[in-house]
Amino acid sequence: DAFLMRDSEWQIRPYLAQSIIPNEDHSVWRMTLRPNVRFHDGTALDAAAVKWNFDTLHKAPGTVTFGAVRDVDSVEIIDALTVDYHLTKSIVAFPDLLIGPVGWPFSPTAAARMGDDAGSYPVGTGPFRFVQWRRDDRIELQRNEDYWQAGLPYLDELEFRPLPDEETRLASL
Prior knowledge:
By secondary structure, the protein is an alpha+beta fold. The protein is 15% helix and 28% strand. It has helices at residues 47-58, 108-114, 166-172, and strands spanning 4-6, 12-14, 17-22, 28-33, 72-79, 82-87, 128-134, 138-143, 157-160. Strands 3-4-6-5 form a 4-stranded antiparallel β-sheet, covered by helices on one side. It has a 3-stranded antiparallel β-sheet with strand order 7-8-9, with no helix packed on it. It is globular, with a radius of gyration of 18 Å.
């Protein structure tokens, strides 16, 4: 799941975040997280996890998202569920950034436990937990029983199979 999402009318709405509010000149954005959201490993999605994601996964030179966050100077923890994003300039469209990869939190605990292999074993907050990835064959996911949205997901499991060959894809239908 992402901190923010677009609704059916293409408006940005809070998702994992409960709110995101700018200061007067849009150079600081305060984001408050929903309480009781947990990563798939059982650890809490909190302000410390948001800061760790920013500092470690996004702001570190050489990371894939480094260019996307070039105008974000820092993330400051305000309390257990609140952070301030301090920008280097006023950016009215800043929330757009938190819809995509910069807004998809990963468990710091899982990353520390898995080290360099963490990218092959995603631990997020979404409706399905990662089970197995057989490269060039399938990705298996299982229902997240602790999902923060009551009653979801509707399915027990998902399996994605990549079919790079167009004829094979067509035949599989």
